[in-house]
Amino acid sequence: MLKRCGRRLLLALAGALLACLLVLTADPPPPPVPAERGRRALRSLAGPAGAAPAPGLEAAAAPVALAREVHSLSEYFSLLTRARRDARPPPGGAPRPADGPRQPPAESLAPHDVFIAVKTTRKFHRARLDLLLETWISRHKEMTFIFTDGDDEALARRTAPPSLPGNVVNTNCSAAHSRQALSCKMAVEYDHFIESGRKWFCHVDDDNYVNVRALLRLLAGYPHTQDVYIGKPSLDRPIQATERVSENKMRPVHFWFATGGAGFCISRGLALKMSPWARGHFMSTAERIRLPDDCTIGYIVEALLGVPLIRSGLFHSHLENLQQVPASELHEQVTLSYGMFESKRNAIHMKGPFSVEADPSRFRSIHCHLYPDTPWCPHSAVF
Ligand code: UDP
Ligand code: MN
After folding, report:
1. 130 catalytically annotated
2. pTM exceeds 0.85, yes or no
3. Candidates 206, 227, 293, 294; catalytic one
4. How many angstroms separate the alpha carbon of residue 208 from the centre of ligand 2?
5. Which residue is closest in CA terms to ligand 1's atom 16?
6. Which of 12, 63, 180, 241 has minimal Cβ neighbours within 10 Å of its Cβ?
7. pLDDT in tens, 262-296
Protein backbone atom coordinates (compact mmCIF):
# COMPACT_ATOMS: atom_id res chain seq x y z
CA MET A 1 0.00 0.00 0.00
CA LEU A 2 2.73 2.38 1.11
CA LYS A 3 4.76 1.37 -1.90
CA ARG A 4 1.83 2.09 -4.27
CA CYS A 5 1.29 5.52 -2.70
CA GLY A 6 4.97 6.27 -3.07
CA ARG A 7 4.86 5.33 -6.73
CA ARG A 8 1.76 7.51 -7.27
CA LEU A 9 3.43 10.43 -5.55
CA LEU A 10 6.49 9.98 -7.72
CA LEU A 11 4.30 9.88 -10.86
CA ALA A 12 2.40 13.00 -9.76
CA LEU A 13 5.66 14.86 -9.12
CA ALA A 14 7.04 13.84 -12.51
CA GLY A 15 3.79 15.05 -14.14
CA ALA A 16 3.98 18.41 -12.37
CA LEU A 17 7.61 18.84 -13.43
CA LEU A 18 6.70 18.08 -17.05
CA ALA A 19 3.83 20.63 -16.91
CA CYS A 20 6.25 23.27 -15.55
CA LEU A 21 8.68 22.57 -18.36
CA LEU A 22 5.89 22.82 -20.93
CA VAL A 23 4.70 26.21 -19.57
CA LEU A 24 8.26 27.52 -19.56
CA THR A 25 8.89 26.55 -23.16
CA ALA A 26 5.45 27.55 -24.46
CA ASP A 27 5.47 31.01 -22.87
CA PRO A 28 9.03 32.28 -22.69
CA PRO A 29 9.85 35.52 -20.88
CA PRO A 30 10.22 38.54 -23.15
CA PRO A 31 13.74 39.33 -24.31
CA PRO A 32 15.35 42.45 -22.85
CA VAL A 33 14.51 45.85 -24.31
CA PRO A 34 16.88 46.68 -27.15
CA ALA A 35 19.10 49.56 -26.11
CA GLU A 36 18.51 51.48 -29.35
CA ARG A 37 14.72 51.72 -29.06
CA GLY A 38 14.76 52.34 -25.34
CA ARG A 39 17.12 55.25 -25.64
CA ARG A 40 14.92 57.93 -24.16
CA ALA A 41 14.16 55.98 -21.01
CA LEU A 42 17.69 54.74 -20.71
CA ARG A 43 19.27 58.12 -21.27
CA SER A 44 17.00 59.59 -18.62
CA LEU A 45 18.27 56.90 -16.31
CA ALA A 46 21.81 58.12 -16.76
CA GLY A 47 21.11 61.12 -14.55
CA PRO A 48 21.82 64.80 -15.18
CA ALA A 49 23.30 65.56 -18.60
CA GLY A 50 23.81 61.89 -19.28
CA ALA A 51 26.27 61.55 -16.42
CA ALA A 52 26.89 58.27 -14.69
CA PRO A 53 24.13 57.35 -12.24
CA ALA A 54 24.61 58.29 -8.64
CA PRO A 55 26.12 55.62 -6.42
CA GLY A 56 23.47 53.21 -5.28
CA LEU A 57 21.31 53.79 -8.36
CA GLU A 58 23.37 51.86 -10.82
CA ALA A 59 21.95 48.42 -10.12
CA ALA A 60 18.54 49.19 -11.59
CA ALA A 61 19.68 52.10 -13.69
CA ALA A 62 22.11 50.32 -15.98
CA PRO A 63 20.42 49.05 -19.17
CA VAL A 64 21.62 45.56 -18.46
CA ALA A 65 19.65 45.54 -15.23
CA LEU A 66 16.45 45.93 -17.25
CA ALA A 67 16.95 42.39 -18.44
CA ARG A 68 14.74 39.91 -16.70
CA GLU A 69 16.21 38.43 -13.55
CA VAL A 70 14.13 35.48 -12.47
CA HIS A 71 15.39 34.26 -9.16
CA SER A 72 12.91 31.48 -8.52
CA LEU A 73 10.20 29.50 -10.21
CA SER A 74 7.56 30.96 -7.91
CA GLU A 75 8.61 34.49 -8.92
CA TYR A 76 8.27 33.49 -12.54
CA PHE A 77 4.84 31.93 -12.02
CA SER A 78 3.54 34.96 -10.17
CA LEU A 79 4.62 37.07 -13.13
CA LEU A 80 2.87 34.78 -15.59
CA THR A 81 -0.28 34.77 -13.50
CA ARG A 82 -0.32 38.54 -13.38
CA ALA A 83 0.29 38.83 -17.10
CA ARG A 84 -2.66 36.52 -17.81
CA ARG A 85 -4.92 38.23 -15.31
CA ASP A 86 -4.30 41.49 -17.13
CA ALA A 87 -5.41 39.78 -20.35
CA ARG A 88 -2.33 40.93 -22.18
CA PRO A 89 -0.85 39.32 -25.24
CA PRO A 90 1.88 36.80 -24.50
CA PRO A 91 5.07 38.59 -23.43
CA GLY A 92 7.14 39.50 -26.46
CA GLY A 93 4.19 38.74 -28.73
CA ALA A 94 2.63 40.98 -31.32
CA PRO A 95 1.84 44.46 -30.05
CA ARG A 96 -1.79 45.33 -29.57
CA PRO A 97 -3.44 46.94 -32.58
CA ALA A 98 -3.26 50.69 -32.83
CA ASP A 99 -6.30 52.94 -32.88
CA GLY A 100 -8.82 50.54 -34.40
CA PRO A 101 -11.89 51.87 -36.14
CA ARG A 102 -12.71 55.44 -35.28
CA GLN A 103 -15.10 55.47 -32.39
CA PRO A 104 -18.33 57.45 -32.51
CA PRO A 105 -18.28 60.26 -29.92
CA ALA A 106 -18.94 58.83 -26.46
CA GLU A 107 -19.58 62.27 -25.02
CA SER A 108 -19.35 65.85 -26.18
CA LEU A 109 -16.12 67.47 -25.11
CA ALA A 110 -15.37 71.17 -24.71
CA PRO A 111 -11.80 72.54 -24.62
CA HIS A 112 -12.29 73.36 -20.95
CA ASP A 113 -12.72 69.63 -20.19
CA VAL A 114 -9.11 68.87 -21.06
CA PHE A 115 -6.02 69.69 -19.00
CA ILE A 116 -2.85 69.79 -21.12
CA ALA A 117 0.33 69.82 -19.05
CA VAL A 118 3.43 71.03 -20.91
CA LYS A 119 6.65 70.03 -19.20
CA THR A 120 9.50 72.46 -19.65
CA THR A 121 12.62 73.74 -17.93
CA ARG A 122 13.99 77.27 -17.42
CA LYS A 123 16.69 76.91 -20.06
CA PHE A 124 14.11 76.01 -22.73
CA HIS A 125 11.73 78.93 -22.13
CA ARG A 126 13.19 80.91 -25.03
CA ALA A 127 14.52 78.02 -27.11
CA ARG A 128 11.34 75.93 -27.13
CA LEU A 129 8.41 77.32 -25.17
CA ASP A 130 8.14 80.64 -27.02
CA LEU A 131 7.50 78.72 -30.24
CA LEU A 132 4.63 76.82 -28.60
CA LEU A 133 3.17 80.03 -27.16
CA GLU A 134 3.26 81.55 -30.61
CA THR A 135 1.67 78.53 -32.28
CA TRP A 136 -0.71 75.97 -30.74
CA ILE A 137 -0.88 77.32 -27.18
CA SER A 138 -2.02 80.73 -28.48
CA ARG A 139 -5.20 79.03 -29.73
CA HIS A 140 -5.85 76.98 -26.61
CA LYS A 141 -4.90 79.12 -23.66
CA GLU A 142 -7.52 77.86 -21.28
CA MET A 143 -6.50 74.23 -21.70
CA THR A 144 -2.78 74.59 -21.32
CA PHE A 145 -0.72 74.58 -18.13
CA ILE A 146 3.04 75.04 -18.22
CA PHE A 147 5.13 73.21 -15.63
CA THR A 148 8.62 74.57 -15.25
CA ASP A 149 11.37 74.85 -12.66
CA GLY A 150 12.36 78.50 -12.54
CA ASP A 151 10.81 81.95 -12.48
CA ASP A 152 11.03 83.97 -15.67
CA GLU A 153 9.82 87.57 -15.86
CA ALA A 154 9.44 87.47 -19.64
CA LEU A 155 7.34 84.30 -19.48
CA ALA A 156 5.22 85.68 -16.65
CA ARG A 157 4.51 88.85 -18.67
CA ARG A 158 3.70 86.87 -21.78
CA THR A 159 1.34 84.49 -20.05
CA ALA A 160 -0.42 86.96 -17.75
CA PRO A 161 -4.13 87.64 -18.25
CA PRO A 162 -5.68 88.58 -20.60
CA SER A 163 -3.08 87.11 -22.93
CA LEU A 164 -2.99 83.78 -21.06
CA PRO A 165 -4.82 82.91 -17.85
CA GLY A 166 -1.52 82.77 -15.96
CA ASN A 167 -1.25 79.01 -16.21
CA VAL A 168 2.45 78.77 -15.41
CA VAL A 169 3.39 76.56 -12.47
CA ASN A 170 6.83 76.73 -10.92
CA THR A 171 7.17 73.18 -9.62
CA ASN A 172 10.30 74.00 -7.62
CA CYS A 173 11.64 70.69 -8.90
CA SER A 174 15.31 70.49 -9.77
CA ALA A 175 16.17 71.76 -13.26
CA ALA A 176 17.85 68.53 -14.27
CA HIS A 177 17.08 65.79 -16.71
CA SER A 178 17.35 63.15 -14.01
CA ARG A 179 14.57 60.67 -13.47
CA GLN A 180 13.91 62.12 -10.00
CA ALA A 181 13.53 65.68 -11.36
CA LEU A 182 11.26 64.50 -14.18
CA SER A 183 9.12 62.48 -11.77
CA CYS A 184 8.91 65.49 -9.47
CA LYS A 185 7.37 67.52 -12.31
CA MET A 186 4.98 64.73 -13.30
CA ALA A 187 3.82 64.50 -9.67
CA VAL A 188 2.99 68.23 -9.66
CA GLU A 189 1.22 67.94 -13.04
CA TYR A 190 -0.92 65.08 -11.71
CA ASP A 191 -1.85 66.95 -8.51
CA HIS A 192 -2.85 70.06 -10.46
CA PHE A 193 -4.98 67.99 -12.80
CA ILE A 194 -6.81 66.30 -9.92
CA GLU A 195 -7.49 69.69 -8.36
CA SER A 196 -8.72 71.12 -11.68
CA GLY A 197 -11.72 68.76 -11.77
CA ARG A 198 -11.33 68.37 -15.55
CA LYS A 199 -12.23 65.23 -17.51
CA TRP A 200 -8.92 64.46 -19.21
CA PHE A 201 -5.26 64.77 -18.31
CA CYS A 202 -2.80 65.03 -21.18
CA HIS A 203 0.93 65.38 -20.78
CA VAL A 204 3.28 66.69 -23.49
CA ASP A 205 6.91 67.84 -23.67
CA ASP A 206 7.99 71.30 -24.78
CA ASP A 207 9.03 69.91 -28.18
CA ASN A 208 5.49 68.75 -28.99
CA TYR A 209 2.95 70.45 -31.23
CA VAL A 210 -0.57 69.60 -30.06
CA ASN A 211 -3.31 69.57 -32.67
CA VAL A 212 -6.07 70.26 -30.20
CA ARG A 213 -8.96 69.70 -32.63
CA ALA A 214 -7.67 66.18 -33.35
CA LEU A 215 -7.06 65.62 -29.64
CA LEU A 216 -10.64 66.53 -28.77
CA ARG A 217 -11.95 64.28 -31.55
CA LEU A 218 -9.91 61.37 -30.22
CA LEU A 219 -10.83 61.82 -26.56
CA ALA A 220 -14.52 62.32 -27.34
CA GLY A 221 -14.50 58.67 -28.47
CA TYR A 222 -14.01 57.49 -24.89
CA PRO A 223 -16.02 58.07 -21.73
CA HIS A 224 -13.86 60.02 -19.27
CA THR A 225 -15.35 58.12 -16.35
CA GLN A 226 -13.86 54.84 -17.57
CA ASP A 227 -10.26 53.66 -17.50
CA VAL A 228 -8.47 55.20 -20.47
CA TYR A 229 -4.70 55.50 -20.93
CA ILE A 230 -3.84 56.40 -24.51
CA GLY A 231 -0.56 57.20 -26.25
CA LYS A 232 2.26 55.66 -28.18
CA PRO A 233 5.01 53.41 -26.85
CA SER A 234 8.56 54.04 -28.07
CA LEU A 235 9.58 50.46 -27.41
CA ASP A 236 8.32 47.53 -29.45
CA ARG A 237 7.73 45.34 -26.40
CA PRO A 238 6.86 45.81 -22.76
CA ILE A 239 9.60 47.36 -20.67
CA GLN A 240 11.10 45.03 -18.10
CA ALA A 241 11.97 46.36 -14.72
CA THR A 242 12.62 45.18 -11.23
CA GLU A 243 10.01 46.18 -8.72
CA ARG A 244 10.93 46.61 -5.07
CA VAL A 245 8.15 44.96 -3.08
CA SER A 246 9.74 45.20 0.36
CA GLU A 247 12.98 46.20 2.09
CA ASN A 248 14.92 43.27 0.68
CA LYS A 249 12.64 41.77 -1.94
CA MET A 250 12.72 42.67 -5.63
CA ARG A 251 10.72 41.03 -8.38
CA PRO A 252 10.61 41.39 -12.16
CA VAL A 253 7.74 43.29 -13.70
CA HIS A 254 6.93 44.19 -17.28
CA PHE A 255 4.45 46.62 -18.74
CA TRP A 256 3.80 48.90 -21.71
CA PHE A 257 4.12 52.63 -21.27
CA ALA A 258 3.35 55.60 -23.53
CA THR A 259 6.47 57.64 -24.17
CA GLY A 260 6.25 61.10 -22.60
CA GLY A 261 7.92 62.65 -25.64
CA ALA A 262 4.92 61.75 -27.82
CA GLY A 263 2.38 62.88 -25.24
CA PHE A 264 -0.33 60.73 -23.66
CA CYS A 265 -3.73 61.16 -22.04
CA ILE A 266 -5.48 59.66 -19.04
CA SER A 267 -9.19 59.82 -18.25
CA ARG A 268 -10.31 61.26 -14.93
CA GLY A 269 -11.81 57.90 -13.96
CA LEU A 270 -8.42 56.24 -14.28
CA ALA A 271 -6.47 59.15 -12.78
CA LEU A 272 -8.57 58.88 -9.62
CA LYS A 273 -7.83 55.15 -9.39
CA MET A 274 -4.12 55.95 -9.65
CA SER A 275 -4.20 58.19 -6.62
CA PRO A 276 -2.99 55.64 -3.97
CA TRP A 277 0.31 55.49 -5.92
CA ALA A 278 0.29 58.95 -7.47
CA ARG A 279 -1.20 61.48 -5.06
CA GLY A 280 1.67 62.47 -2.80
CA HIS A 281 3.36 59.12 -3.59
CA PHE A 282 4.42 59.45 -7.22
CA MET A 283 8.09 59.94 -6.37
CA SER A 284 8.20 56.93 -4.06
CA THR A 285 6.38 54.82 -6.68
CA ALA A 286 8.98 55.90 -9.26
CA GLU A 287 11.67 54.89 -6.77
CA ARG A 288 10.15 51.40 -6.53
CA ILE A 289 11.05 50.69 -10.16
CA ARG A 290 13.80 53.31 -10.57
CA LEU A 291 12.56 54.39 -13.97
CA PRO A 292 11.60 57.84 -15.31
CA ASP A 293 8.22 59.57 -15.05
CA ASP A 294 6.55 58.18 -18.18
CA CYS A 295 7.54 54.62 -17.27
CA THR A 296 6.16 55.17 -13.76
CA ILE A 297 2.78 56.15 -15.23
CA GLY A 298 2.77 52.91 -17.27
CA TYR A 299 3.78 50.95 -14.17
CA ILE A 300 0.89 52.33 -12.11
CA VAL A 301 -1.69 51.94 -14.88
CA GLU A 302 -0.69 48.63 -16.47
CA ALA A 303 1.19 46.73 -13.77
CA LEU A 304 -0.57 47.92 -10.61
CA LEU A 305 -4.09 48.64 -11.89
CA GLY A 306 -4.17 46.12 -14.75
CA VAL A 307 -5.48 48.68 -17.27
CA PRO A 308 -3.94 48.18 -20.73
CA LEU A 309 -2.46 51.07 -22.70
CA ILE A 310 -4.48 52.00 -25.79
CA ARG A 311 -1.93 52.46 -28.55
CA SER A 312 -2.50 55.34 -30.89
CA GLY A 313 -0.56 56.07 -34.04
CA LEU A 314 -1.69 59.70 -33.83
CA PHE A 315 0.91 60.64 -31.20
CA HIS A 316 4.45 61.31 -32.44
CA SER A 317 7.78 61.79 -30.69
CA HIS A 318 11.17 62.47 -32.26
CA LEU A 319 12.13 58.88 -31.44
CA GLU A 320 10.37 57.91 -34.66
CA ASN A 321 11.09 59.05 -38.20
CA LEU A 322 8.82 62.08 -38.49
CA GLN A 323 9.43 62.33 -42.23
CA GLN A 324 7.08 59.38 -42.54
CA VAL A 325 4.07 61.34 -41.28
CA PRO A 326 2.30 62.33 -44.53
CA ALA A 327 1.72 66.08 -44.79
CA SER A 328 -1.76 65.28 -46.18
CA GLU A 329 -2.69 63.66 -42.85
CA LEU A 330 -1.56 66.43 -40.52
CA HIS A 331 -5.15 67.32 -39.69
CA GLU A 332 -5.66 63.95 -38.03
CA GLN A 333 -2.44 63.77 -36.03
CA VAL A 334 -2.79 64.54 -32.33
CA THR A 335 0.83 65.41 -31.47
CA LEU A 336 3.95 66.12 -33.52
CA SER A 337 7.53 66.75 -32.50
CA TYR A 338 11.02 67.60 -33.74
CA GLY A 339 14.53 66.83 -32.61
CA MET A 340 17.07 64.17 -33.34
CA PHE A 341 16.59 60.60 -34.55
CA GLU A 342 19.51 58.27 -35.17
CA SER A 343 21.87 61.32 -35.02
CA LYS A 344 19.97 63.16 -37.78
CA ARG A 345 17.70 66.19 -37.63
CA ASN A 346 14.16 64.90 -37.47
CA ALA A 347 11.06 66.94 -38.31
CA ILE A 348 7.85 66.74 -40.28
CA HIS A 349 8.51 66.97 -43.99
CA MET A 350 6.18 69.53 -45.52
CA LYS A 351 6.23 72.39 -47.91
CA GLY A 352 4.96 75.50 -46.25
CA PRO A 353 5.18 79.27 -46.09
CA PHE A 354 8.43 79.09 -44.11
CA SER A 355 11.71 77.63 -45.26
CA VAL A 356 13.44 74.90 -43.25
CA GLU A 357 16.05 77.51 -42.22
CA ALA A 358 13.39 79.91 -40.93
CA ASP A 359 11.26 77.16 -39.39
CA PRO A 360 13.45 74.12 -38.63
CA SER A 361 10.88 72.46 -36.34
CA ARG A 362 8.21 73.02 -39.09
CA PHE A 363 5.81 74.02 -36.26
CA ARG A 364 5.12 77.45 -37.80
CA SER A 365 4.34 75.91 -41.17
CA ILE A 366 2.17 73.23 -39.55
CA HIS A 367 0.33 75.88 -37.56
CA CYS A 368 -0.42 77.93 -40.69
CA HIS A 369 -1.63 74.75 -42.38
CA LEU A 370 -4.04 74.00 -39.51
CA TYR A 371 -5.03 77.63 -38.75
CA PRO A 372 -4.64 79.59 -42.01
CA ASP A 373 -6.44 82.60 -40.47
CA THR A 374 -3.49 83.24 -38.11
CA PRO A 375 -2.44 86.90 -38.62
CA TRP A 376 1.29 86.14 -39.04
CA CYS A 377 0.72 83.39 -41.63
CA PRO A 378 1.56 84.55 -45.17
CA HIS A 379 -1.74 84.72 -47.04
CA SER A 380 -0.36 83.67 -50.39
CA ALA A 381 0.95 80.45 -48.92
CA VAL A 382 0.77 77.36 -51.06
CA PHE A 383 0.86 74.08 -49.15
N1 UDP B 1 13.55 68.69 -19.45
C2 UDP B 1 13.55 69.06 -18.11
N3 UDP B 1 14.75 69.30 -17.51
C4 UDP B 1 15.92 69.19 -18.17
C5 UDP B 1 15.91 68.81 -19.53
C6 UDP B 1 14.70 68.56 -20.14
O7 UDP B 1 12.49 69.18 -17.52
O8 UDP B 1 16.97 69.42 -17.59
C9 UDP B 1 12.28 68.46 -20.10
C10 UDP B 1 12.17 69.20 -21.42
O11 UDP B 1 11.71 70.50 -21.23
C12 UDP B 1 11.23 68.31 -22.19
C13 UDP B 1 11.49 66.93 -21.64
O14 UDP B 1 12.15 67.11 -20.39
O15 UDP B 1 9.87 68.66 -21.94
C16 UDP B 1 12.34 66.08 -22.55
O17 UDP B 1 13.55 66.77 -22.82
P18 UDP B 1 14.30 66.65 -24.19
O19 UDP B 1 13.33 66.85 -25.33
O20 UDP B 1 15.47 67.59 -24.16
O21 UDP B 1 14.85 65.16 -24.17
P22 UDP B 1 14.33 63.80 -24.81
O23 UDP B 1 14.06 62.92 -23.62
O24 UDP B 1 13.11 64.08 -25.62
O25 UDP B 1 15.46 63.37 -25.65
MN1 MN C 1 12.43 65.68 -26.74
Report:
1. no
2. no
3. 294
4. 8
5. 205
6. 12
7. 999 999 999 999 999 999 999 999 999 999 999 99
